[in-house]
Amino acid sequence: MEQIGNQTTIRREFAFLGYAKFPEPQALFFILFLTMYITTLFGNGLILTTTWMDVGLQTPMYFFIRHLSFLDICYTSVTLPHLLKNLLAETRTISIQGCLAQLYFLVAFIGVESLLLATMAYDRYIALCYPLNYGVFMNSKVCSGMAVASWSCGFVNSILHTVMTAQLPFCASHNLEHIFCDVPQLLKLSCVDTFPNQMILLAVTIILGIIPFLCIIVSYAHIVMAVLKILSTQGRHKAFSTCTSHLTVVSLFYATCMFNYNRPSSSQSLFMDTLASVLCNVVTPMLNPIIYCLRNEEMKKAVRRVFSLKRASSI
Q: For position 172, what pLDDT does the model report?
């Protein structure tokens, strides 16, 4: 909102300032991010196809990996297409409605991924600590229920943030010091007290961020103790190898999210915000399928089986 004489005009769009931190020529960054987007779509699409079609991958672990790959495709598609458009545009703006829509899906997908990763840790915990009861604890009904709960919690949480943010008057400025719409940046633009919004943001961070992370830590603490009881070195190596891909993805996700959202305000800058956003929203979804394919012999064999069958059927 802006005061001009005796009239008040309402801002109906936001301008992104984060693109100013991309050096010229920005067409090179367009090519870079387009390549990363295509790589993300191809890699996660490959995992989706393989885990869906290969009979040997119809297990709870790959059921959740399939959900994670679909989530990464959605997650990246919320921000990257608009980022690519803005890199080539003279004016980098977004409507208020478009900004709130971007915020809604971004917050939802972050929450879903945090819960999915905790669910996958629980799956590994049951598989390695209670192998004889694995089929009972992780049957198809339980897995489907856990997946539905993760997606539902993420989207319900996002509705809360989006509705509360939409009710704020954005009259302080129309310039977003970022490259996409997110809750902390929008709160900075409001000219009213945002304490309730900040408290809800903190509470949700604890519930959907810190608690799932602690559950992952506890699960892997039990896994390590169980694996160390295995007498053979080969058995221990095989047990740990089923967890390394998931642990790598967990480390990457939480490290980039903490860097993006939990840095001290004194250390925040437009450049660091832009860098953190790229790491969290572009790099991580691109690396996830690479981690699961390169570090997983079972997945690599399944990819060869699926695509050799496709080639054989096309001849």
A: 63
The number of domains in the chain is 1
Share of the chain above pLDDT 70, in %: 90
> Could you give the 3-state DSSP secondary structure of residue 47?
helix
pLDDT of residue 314: 61
Domain assignment present for 136: yes
Q: What six digits make up the tokens of 136?
A: 């009972």
- For 51-100, write each residue's pLDDT tens digit: 999 998 999 999 999 999 999 999 999 999 999 999 988 889 999 999 99
Domain that holds residue 293: 10-314
80: domain CATH number is 1.20.1070.10
Buried b or exposed e, range 269-296, using 16+ CB within 10 angstroms: eeeebbebbbbbbbebbbbbbebbbebb
Is 123 a residue whose pLDDT tops 90?
yes
The amino acid at residue 57 is: L
Nearest Cα neighbor of 250 from 284, 277, 225 is: 284
Q: How far is CA 313 from CA 48, 53, 308, 310, in A?
A: 20, 14, 9, 5
Instruction: Dump strand ranges (E) for the chain.
Output: 2-4, 7-9, 13-16, 93-95, 175-176
CA 239 to the chain's CA centroid: 27
**Does some domain include residue 4?**
no
pLDDT of residue 315: 55
- Determine, yes or no, domain membership for 2: no
Which structure tokens are listed for 232? 């053979």
Does some domain include residue 3? no
